[in-house]
Amino acid sequence: MTCKELLVLVKEEKTWEEALVHCRTLEAKDPDKPVSAYENYKYDLATLLTDDDHEFAREKAQSATTDEIWTGLRYLAGSWLWVGGEDMNYKNIRECLSEGSCGTLPIEGDADYEIRSCEERRNFFCYRKP
Gene3D superfamilies from the entry (predicted)? Predict the structure, then answer.
């Protein structure tokens, strides 16, 4: 994430997958195309790649209605992945024992991420691609 004004806090409680679909259908070029068509969507679940990203997102999250916010981080096929394809640079996030785990940004505390079931309902960040 590079442009802070492009981060949107959505104060609806959705599962991780529902949040992903919500973000990708915002201003979609062709609503009839699948949400997986990269060239079709302008928004995605946010990736927080730097300390500045985390700090800004945590400040913006203070008005959230849940204690943690979904990010674009998901555990699939034995690895942590960002939905946008960016490299996962965090070494202090633990490996999961099962699929169905997603990363949240905790509003309080020092942790970069927490790991939760993707089926939990939380507020989330959408990020508008530049």
Answer: Mannose-Binding Protein A, subunit A
- In the block, tokens 């640079």 appear at 89
Which amino acid, residue 34? Answer: P
Q: How many CA atoms lie within 13 Å of 91's alpha carbon, on the beta-carbon side?
A: 0
pLDDT in tens, 68-115: 999 999 988 888 889 888 877 766 666 665 678 999 999 988 788 888
- Please indicate, yes or no, whether the overall pTM of this predicted structure exceeds 0.90: no
Cα gap 57→29, rounded to integer Å: 27
Which residues are 75's β-sheet partners? 80, 101
According to CATH, the superfamily of the domain at 4-128 is Mannose-Binding Protein A, subunit A (3.10.100.10)
In the chain, domain spans: 4-128
Sequence-separated (6 or more) residues with CB below 8 Å from residue 47: 1, 53, 71, 72, 73, 82, 83, 84, 86, 127
pLDDT of residue 3: 53
